[in-house]
Amino acid sequence: MLPKGAFLKIIDNSGARLGQIIWTRFGTAGAGNVVKVAIKEAKGGKVTKGQMKKAVVVETKYPTRRPNGAHYQSLRNTAVLLSDKGNPLGNRLRGMLGLEFARPRWKRVSMLGKRLF
Amino acid sequence: MRLEKCWFCSSTIYPGHGITFVRNDATTFKFCRSKCHKNFKMKRNPRKVRWTKAYRKLAGKELAEDATFEMERRRNRPEKYDRDLVKKTVKAIERISEIRVRRQERFYEKRMAKVKGQQVARDKQQLEQEIHLVKAPASLVSDKAQQKSKEKLKVAVEAKQQKQKQQAQGADAMQERAAVQLG
C-alpha cells in the first residue's frame, strides 16, 4: 500500500540505499508491483543519487494478502532496483522474497535471493 | 493447506486466519489473532503470560511431555498421494487425539485431587468468617435467640409428651391391676 512519495529501502547491492516512489501503476504499490523510483541516497555501485529507475517492491509494512487468505507483513518497506527491461541491477539480495516472486516474470530476481517464503 | 501453530499462544491457525510477521533477519512469526500479535509487539514473553500454552506447560498445569505429542510433527517432505495411506492417517489421528485427551484429563484430575479437601475447609472457614456478607450480624443474633427459644420449646414439648406417655402407661397399669383384682 505504498503511494507516490513513499521511501523504499533498496536491498540489493546496486549501490542505492533509499529510493522515493515517483510513479505507481495503480496508485498504491504492494509486494511484487513495479514502481518508478528516484534515488535519494546512494553509496558507490552503479547507481548515483538523483537518478530515476524502475524497482519492484519486495516487502511492505502493510499486510500482503495471498490468494489462500493468508496475510503477512514486514517491519520495513523494501525494493529491488530493475533495469528498464526488468532485470535486476544488483547481483545480491539482502532480504526475503515472498511467493509473489515465484512467477516466471521474476525468475532473475528470485535467483538472487535464497528462498521464497 | 497446512495448520500452523500460533507463536504466542500455541493454538492452531486455520487457513485465512491470523497474520504472519517477517522480521528483518527473515524469521517468521505466525499469530492466530490480533490479540497474540499485539502481545508480541508489546514484547511480552509468552512463557510469562498466563493464558498461553507455553506458560501452562512450563508451570506444570498441563501435560507437557507425552508420546502423543511426538506424533504431531512438522514434516516437510510431501507424500505421494495414496488413498489407503490417507485413510489410515485419518484413523490414526482420531485415535491418537482420543488418547491424548484422555491423558490430559487424567493429568488435570490428578492435579485437582488434592484441592477438594482444601476447598471444603476453605468453604467452612468462609462460612464462619464472612457470613456477614450474606446476613446482617444483628439478624444473626436474633436468629440465634430464635433458635434457642425453639430448642427450649422442643425440649419442653418433648418433656410434656414423655409425661403424658408415663401417665397413660400408669393409667394402663392401674386398669390392668384393677382388672386382675376384679377378675
From TrEMBL, chain A:
Question: Which SUPFAM superfamilies does the UniProt entry name for this protein?
Answer: Ribosomal protein L14
Instruction: Give yes or no: UniProt keyword Repeat.
Output: no
Q: Which GO terms describe its cellular component?
A: mitochondrial large ribosomal subunit
Q: What is this protein called?
A: Ribosomal protein L14
The species is Tetradesmus obliquus (Green alga)
HAMAP family reported for this sequence: Ribosomal_uL14
**Family, per entry:** Belongs to the universal ribosomal protein uL14 family.
GO terms for MF: large ribosomal subunit rRNA binding; structural constituent of ribosome
Q: Which domain of life is it from?
A: Eukaryota
Q: Which GO terms describe its biological process?
A: translation
Listed InterPro entries: Ribosomal_uL14, Ribosomal_uL14_sf
Keywords tagged on the record: Ribonucleoprotein, Ribosomal protein
Extract the Gene3D superfamilies matched here: Ribosomal protein L14
Write down the CDD domains for this protein, in alphabetical order: Ribosomal_uL14 (cd00337)
UniProtKB/TrEMBL annotation, chain B:
Name of the featured protein = TRASH domain-containing protein
Q: Where is the composition biased (Low complexity)?
A: 162-173
Q: Write down the CDD domains for this protein, in alphabetical order.
A: Ribosomal_L24e_L24
Query: Where, per UniProt, does this protein localize?
Result: Nucleus
Alphabetically list the UniProt keywords.
Nucleus, Ribosome biogenesis
Family indicated by similarity: Belongs to the eukaryotic ribosomal protein eL24 family.
Q: Tell me the superkingdom of the source.
A: Eukaryota
Domain TRASH residue range list: 6-44
Give the residue ranges for region: Disordered.
Answer: 158-183
